[in-house]
Amino acid sequence: MPRKARSQRKAEIYAVAEGFSPAPGIFSSWGHAHPLVTGYRNAQFQSFTTVSEAERYLARKEVKEYIRMIRPASTTSFQRGEKAYYAVANGRSPGVHEYYFGDDGAEPKVVQFSGACHKRFPTLVEAESFMADWANMYSFVCRGETKQELCQVAYPLGVAGSPKAFVKEPEMETTDKIVWDRLEEIKA
């Protein structure tokens, strides 16, 4: 007997209680959450189907202040036999693939790759959005780590001030700039 196609995907919400800055937070994209927890010693995070479940998780962890990066849930669902897109945000060869298995698929890019981040999507737009989410958050985490390292550097005589003056701000599209500015406000 054939299985029924799912009418709608379950929402996936990620709560990060402990991770790289700007954690803690609640995120609707694994692309946002993954860079915050991968490589972070004793990271604390969990996935949920609702925002309220994620909020209760953070409350149990005694997290009072956190960021929220929530988008409306996708109305697109996987239908049996329809094409899927496999986004590899972090792997041997990042990109969007039309197949999971095979030499040109996503599997060889992520299997036995520490810290791999990949996910299946019903549309190319969602797969590309996931890739952008991951890249933007990873860039933000790396930028914060670099600033911390620069702050610990011994400056030569005559050089004063914050290393922020020496770090070039990235050029980005308007929507990315809005998210970036919001993260900077929260981090400050």
From TrEMBL:
It comes from the Eukaryota. Residues 13-57, 85-130 form the Ribonuclease H1 N-terminal domain. It comes from Coleophoma crateriformis. InterPro entries: Ribosomal_bL9/RNase_H1_N (IPR009027), RNase_H1_N (IPR011320), RNase_H1_N_sf (IPR037056). This is Ribonuclease H1 N-terminal domain-containing protein.
